[in-house]
Design brief:
alpha+beta, 6 helices, 28% strand, globular, binds coenzyme A
């Protein structure tokens, strides 16, 4: 999530998505994100109406302190959501809403963006409302997004950055089998200071060998 590409100042034009986006039957993710489900956790495309719940879930201090500042208003989240859909349409980025069994309320997001043209190398990020921490929602959603990245988008190398101080973020990445490659010194500016970040990666061979999320203790 750190340094993911959305910036409010980039968002001068608000384009609301068409209402039919909720049901996606195409196999091309650029035309509409698929609905992905894993044992009670469902990922789907964001909708403008998710702004209220995402504002409530993602703007708390505990959720936002180690990530790029989220929008500070519901209207800001509406602009962010419209931006995510435009970026998906041009094929450089995908953002999923996280929902749990029995509810369609967005309680978090998973983001995936290309780091070079062609999406061979990508970065993923995530934020989930704190009432759902430690419940397994992250891991189930992460499995879906990792599969989506390698299987559907065709990613070769999947990177994630987590502030060294972000214990849960690093613990979560370790859990799904990401490999710690190093520390990016003073690479993330937040709350008036530069923070060191851990660089975590998953490569397609790890995923194909099913080493991902089955070998949670690797940190080398
Ligand atoms: C990151 C996030 C999505 C993970 O979801 P979660 O439900 O908290 O994750 P989980 O509980 O499944 O996994 C976290 C792991 O880190 C461990 N952990 C918690 N605090 C830790 C710490 N200080 N140091 C090391 N590990 C820690 C937990 O024990 C857990 O491992 P376990 O299940 O084997 O016990 C969620 O915490 C979040 O949204 N945080 C705020 C946003 C954020 O920081 N996103 C960027 C991450 S790079």
């Amino acid at each position: 999530m750190e340094k993911m590409p959305y910036r409010a100042e980039m968002d001068l034009q608000v384009v609301f998505p068409p209402p039919q986006q909720e049901v996606v039957t195409t196999t091309d993710w650029r035309a509409g994100l698929p609905v992905l489900s894993n044992k009670g956790v469902t990922l789907r495309e964001l909708r403008i109406t998710d702004a209220h719940s995402l504002f409530a879930m993602l703007t708390t201090e505990e959720v936002s302190r180690f990530i790029s500042p989220p929008p500070s208003t519901i209207e800001g989240f509406e602009r962010f959501i419209a931006w995510t859909i435009r970026q998906r349409q041009v094929g450089t980025y995908a953002c999923f809403a996280v929902t749990v069994a029995g509810s369609d309320t967005a309680i978090g997001i998973f983001q995936l963006r290309e780091l070079e043209p062609g999406f061979q190398t990508a970065e993923w990020g995530f934020a989930i409302g704190s009432p759902y921490w430690g419940t397994g929602v992250f891991q189930k959603g992460a499995e879906l997004v990792i599969n989506f990245a390698f299987d559907t988008v065709g990613v070769h190398r999947l990177e994630a950055r987590a502030a060294v101080r972000n214990g849960r973020g690093n613990g979560a990445l370790r859990k799904v089998g990401a490999v710690q490659e190093g520390v990016l010194r003073k690479s993330f500016y937040r709350n008036g200071e530069y923070l060191d970040q851990v660089l975590w990666t998953i490569i397609d061979e790890d995923w194909a060998a099913q080493a991902v999320w089955q070998n949670p203790v690797r940190t080398h």
